[in-house]
Amino acid sequence: xxxLRFATLNMTMKKYIKPILYLLLIILFVSGTIWTFRFxxxxxxxxxxxxxxxxxxxxxxxxxxxENEIIDQLLASKLYPKGQSAGVLNAHAIEDYLLQNSAIQxxxxxxxxxxxxxxxxxxxxxxxxxxxxxxQQFYIGSDGHLMATNPNHTAQLIIANGNISESFVPNRNIIxxxxxxxxxxxxxxxxxxLVTFIRNDDFLNAFIDQIYVNSKNEFELIPKIGNxxxxxxxxxxxxxQFKRLQQFYHHGVRKVGWDAYRIINLKYNNxxxxxx
Length: 276
Description:
Elements lengths: L1 H45 L4 E7 L9 H10 L14 H8 L5 E8 L4 E8 L2 E6 L5 E5 L4 E3 L9 E5 L11 H4 L5 H17 L2 H6 E6 L5 E5 L5 E5 L4 H19 L6 E3 L7 E3 L1
Parallel strand pairs: 1-3, 4-7, 7-8, 10-11
Antiparallel strand pairs: 2-3, 4-5, 5-6, 8-9, 9-10, 11-12
């Protein structure tokens, strides 16, 4: 009877010993991993940044900010990471500071085990230069955000001017702002729509040089070739207006010459009215 009880106990122990050992191994592995991770974190926190690499990406050939300008800005704000330990370095503060620059669309700061800090920047792409009624100049970016001009960098873009009362507000998004009923905001939004359409059409992009908002708050286009004024009116139906404009130039102007008409009026549906 005693031998039977001992054999039963032995079988019971064998049944549970493997799961217990397996559980202990898991605990040791997890503990070791946590310890290694924390040790690496402590070592990384002590590591001093000895190199800063700034990468500026852009979808445009236009350059509005350089690596040296970024470094100078970070030095002036005492956020330049070189010489700082990883434990002191504040990546979010660097990102938030650089995003105040309206030429910058996105920023990511990475720290590496080697001690290198990488600052990756996406430059905002300007699509039109605005000169408002107060002679203040700024850009609208491809994402609808307003951009400040930079005396060190200029862009060869369509110019929009005239009766534009909207002032520059850094990083203001005129697409979102257009939900308001304020006419001046709607003017910038309409300019953004017109320029976006023009830039996506090879003929129009090569043809249109300027957008002018007249005293009646109507949109006029000034071509690069010829002396015409192309009148769009409120430009609510601008896609159809541009279609009629292209047909007119391809089939009408070629017969009479570029300077045959002083005003080309596209305000009225299904019509192109030329005034000499």
